[in-house]
Amino acid sequence: MRLFGTAGIRGPINSKVTPELALNVGKALGTYIDHGTVVVGRDARTSSVMLESAVVSGLLSTGVDVVRIGLVPTPMLAWATNKLGDAGVMITASHNPPSDNGIKVFNERGIEFFLEQEEELEKIIFSKSYKTVSWDKIGSVKELDLREQYIKDILDYVNHETKLKVLLDMGNGAGSLITPYLLREMRAKVVTLNSHPDGHFPGRKSEPRYENIAYLSDLVRELGFDLAIAQDGDADRIAVFDEKGNYVEEDTLIALFARLYAREHGGGNIVVSINTSFRIDKVVEEEGGKVYRVPLGQLHDGIKKYNAIFASEPWKFIHPKFGLWIDSFVTIGLLIKIIDQEGKPLSEIVKDIPKYYMIKKNVKCPDEIKYQVVEKVKEQLQELLKDQIEEVITISGIRLNLKDGSWVLVRPSGTEPKIRVVVEGTTEKRREELFNLAYNLVTKLVSEFSSGSKSS
């Protein structure tokens, strides 16, 4: 049994995620780093103070010192850990429902713990082999408010002032404490929605999916904003609407930033997750760069392996020159800078990004057979498309890049009993053709394996 998923520990409060678990994570982390300082932050959820207090208690019991930075977005916790800590802990369930919470652990560079580091923590927890210290060696606690310094560092990096009119939907999350202030320092005209932290998320669902924030489209257009930006509960993720109220697809935004960095560097390596569009490759190759794909949640490994100048998965962006963590605030600042420097509206800028047609759909599949199903899909899908295949990528399920620029991805979910099917076609007709082929194959194999497991 594993505690850590693809985004730390996450789940329902007081069943999967308990104060006892938080205490043990604190004790395990203190044991793992042995000595030093751990930076601890939390999001706005109703259970976050409870879990934060438990983590801090566990850390102190091992003799580790703690810097508490309070209610902050996850990117700020990563930044603060890089500046002040030997490790960091963020209490957050990101965009999950308000009844959930979670724990993310970061290393001294502000990078989320790698798989092998999480496994070490789990080993310590399951074996209960915690370090303990005597009464006179218990760690100390310092409380710091670092928001102004964080905003200043972003302003120094982005180095831009603007006259744009921006609509912000903070989703009652921790971004409320940073984003409006950052943009006002950049001289933007800012109007906010749902911009008071509230763990019940009364304004909207925390995840900034289109269906949860579609109302921004009319507001942008009718009230004359240059763009609208929405964030999730811990503000590591953003969604964007242009001045016409069009939702800017996540892969289009990745392509926009990838092109910016490739152009600035006269090429360079870009790392993206396995489920991203071929439009990114197109714009990067035009600037003399190269795109490498990695499994979801492993951008940091890719940055290190390929010496990347930029890395991203949908709605999550890493700007290595600023820091090796996902940082939506740097992304927002740079997006505004791009719009101003291009001298035209966002809708016109993204017209330069090639258009492809993507569809994503999940097939329910019991955890105990989903990996077997995907292995069979690998074999049969390659046979069905053998004359069309340009490249086969098997780092996370299977992705077949086809000769016409279309591609098919089938991968097991890392967090749910599902298999994810993603298809991108050069035309809508091609997308539908490939999707029907892949989706029907996965559905058939899930049914066959389910019947087999029941009969056995």
From TrEMBL:
<dbReference type="InterPro" id="IPR005843">
    <property type="entry name" value="A-D-PHexomutase_C"/>
</dbReference>
<dbReference type="GO" id="GO:0008966">
    <property type="term" value="F:phosphoglucosamine mutase activity"/>
</dbReference>
<dbReference type="Pfam" id="PF02878">
    <property type="entry name" value="PGM_PMM_I"/>
</dbReference>
<dbReference type="InterPro" id="IPR016055">
    <property type="entry name" value="A-D-PHexomutase_a/b/a-I/II/III"/>
</dbReference>
<keyword id="KW-0597">Phosphoprotein</keyword>
<dbReference type="InterPro" id="IPR024086">
    <property type="entry name" value="GlmM_arc-type"/>
</dbReference>
<dbReference type="InterPro" id="IPR036900">
    <property type="entry name" value="A-D-PHexomutase_C_sf"/>
</dbReference>
<keyword id="KW-0460">Magnesium</keyword>
<keyword id="KW-0479">Metal-binding</keyword>
<feature type="domain" description="Alpha-D-phosphohexomutase alpha/beta/alpha">
    <location>
        <begin position="149"/>
        <end position="245"/>
    </location>
</feature>
<feature type="domain" description="Alpha-D-phosphohexomutase alpha/beta/alpha">
    <location>
        <begin position="250"/>
        <end position="356"/>
    </location>
</feature>
<dbReference type="GO" id="GO:0005975">
    <property type="term" value="P:carbohydrate metabolic process"/>
</dbReference>
<protein>
    <submittedName>
        <fullName>Phosphoglucosamine mutase</fullName>
        <ecNumber>5.4.2.10</ecNumber>
    </submittedName>
</protein>
<dbReference type="InterPro" id="IPR005846">
    <property type="entry name" value="A-D-PHexomutase_a/b/a-III"/>
</dbReference>
<feature type="domain" description="Alpha-D-phosphohexomutase C-terminal">
    <location>
        <begin position="362"/>
        <end position="434"/>
    </location>
</feature>
<dbReference type="InterPro" id="IPR005841">
    <property type="entry name" value="Alpha-D-phosphohexomutase_SF"/>
</dbReference>
<dbReference type="GO" id="GO:0000287">
    <property type="term" value="F:magnesium ion binding"/>
</dbReference>
<dbReference type="Pfam" id="PF00408">
    <property type="entry name" value="PGM_PMM_IV"/>
</dbReference>
<dbReference type="InterPro" id="IPR005845">
    <property type="entry name" value="A-D-PHexomutase_a/b/a-II"/>
</dbReference>
<keyword id="KW-0413">Isomerase</keyword>
<dbReference type="InterPro" id="IPR016066">
    <property type="entry name" value="A-D-PHexomutase_CS"/>
</dbReference>
<dbReference type="Pfam" id="PF02879">
    <property type="entry name" value="PGM_PMM_II"/>
</dbReference>
<dbReference type="Pfam" id="PF02880">
    <property type="entry name" value="PGM_PMM_III"/>
</dbReference>
<dbReference type="InterPro" id="IPR005844">
    <property type="entry name" value="A-D-PHexomutase_a/b/a-I"/>
</dbReference>
<feature type="domain" description="Alpha-D-phosphohexomutase alpha/beta/alpha">
    <location>
        <begin position="2"/>
        <end position="129"/>
    </location>
</feature>
<comment type="similarity">
    <text>Belongs to the phosphohexose mutase family.</text>
</comment>
